[in-house]
């Protein structure tokens, strides 16, 4: 009652309300700035703590000063300017120290709150020392002690709530408790004062000036608080923009701006849940893979590839409508989601996608129709969850990619059986070397002018314990996909070199290299190591690679080839004429042999164009002093054409079928030219060539 009586009878209530406004505003800004400081670290945290201290100290001091001006002791008053300014410094420094301690995770935040409360008390009583009244001042010690306890206790609880946040409204509660700490201290301390005016002293500060001072102090205090609040808003806006930017980057593809895989997964989960609720609603997943994107990258560079992806993305974004969603999953793979009730709606979207994807892409002065393979799976018919739907749509897409007659393929249950069989083969292939299921067959390479054996090409064979002989065209792509091609390629090279080293003649052994071996291995070091281990002369080893291997990473591949050639090993370019830039490839690296692709020999008897190409390649080889070997010779007429055109070497079923090593050694033991091969009629190739001559 003494405190309430002090407020009601000894204060200017209008100024008390102004002080209360100042206090509430300052505490609101202070707790907000302190909350921001705790969410930062390092220099940024120290900066926010400084703003917190300035806002807290200035608002507390302004509240105190306005409330002091509201006090009416009944005697003239004056202020000591030095102590008044010192009280402001104490308020800022003390609250700054308290909030800094409260932000230290090693200490309980209530300790920092106690320091804040003591700083409020120190500021108040220093201000009271600066308050000079013309009368006898008496203090009640119990009220002074109570004011100190109130300030420290309420401040400790306020800061504790601001840091710990035990309740949903803890932030607002912390503001209220801090207001109570400041107001409780001030008015309890003022109730401890009793002033007996001295009648002979009549000079003091004009009351009107005191009111003006109170308003001025309130305005300055509010400006300081508003400055802190403005800093908070600016940072909050910047933080919000940063969050939105990071969220956009997290959910959208950086290159095309389309939603990314994360967004696609979230949207598909949502559509599946929605389809579960509506029995008539279905959801389709459409997986899209560009067909000729690699060609764009190889011919025009990655910048052109990026430009092509942007064009495709813009087209896809424009054609989507209600219930449709398009995303880029990565690389040249896109995906779409379609919510539909009628199958015609789904077919309409697929038709629009196909039309858009097959429109030519213009990249500067270059135009290409990339095309695409599209796979479709429908919920709930083709899968009950997201993973199954996407997997089945992928299966359908790969079926479309392998079928040149169609670009769109809908999932069918039989595709699962094919995929399972492929996975089973991949598992067995990893153990094929250990189980001794792999073997090498050798196909003769013959001199066209003389009929003499020039060398052999090593060809890999896999005899599966259940499925029997599996063609290389089936298991080599699987090996390249699952990474087992590295171990298999090393086994082939080591086995071929070891077996060739046991032959008594100087025939060459040709070994094919996979593009994966160039991309993931120190190939030159491996070749050197195997030559040393097997004792095979480097000049007897010939490594074959396709043009596509070089185009994939031209600089690196040519560097590796130069290292291999420095060992004395010869290099042949395989399947010549089917790559992207055959002449440029020959110009970039001095190959030791050109192997003409078998597709030209297949058409040479009935196609003047194929015959002209063969003649041109042979002429090119002679001009560059590079021997040419023709693959796929299967008839007498084909061999005759090669003789007439001046081809250097040839291989094919007509000259000799691939044979295992034991049959080759058996022929050698019979006294024939090891490893001389026989034709399909088992007639020695040399004898046949002599008779033709």
From TrEMBL:
Keywords (A to Z) from UniProt: Membrane, Transmembrane, Transmembrane helix
Keyword Transmembrane belongs to the record: yes
Domain MHYT as annotated: residue spans: 11-196
Domain EAL: 422-672
Pfam family, one: MHYT
Protein name: Bifunctional diguanylate cyclase/phosphodiesterase
CDD domains attached to this UniProt entry: EAL, GGDEF
Transmembrane in keyword set: yes
Signal peptide extent: none
PANTHER family for this protein: BIOFILM ARCHITECTURE MAINTENANCE PROTEIN MBAA, DIGUANYLATE CYCLASE DGCP
Organism this protein belongs to: Mesorhizobium cantuariense
Domain of life: Bacteria
Gene3D superfamilies given in the database record: 3.30.70.270, EAL domain (3.20.20.450)
Transmembrane segments: 12-35, 47-70, 82-102, 114-137, 143-163, 175-197, 209-234
Residues of the GGDEF domain: 281-413
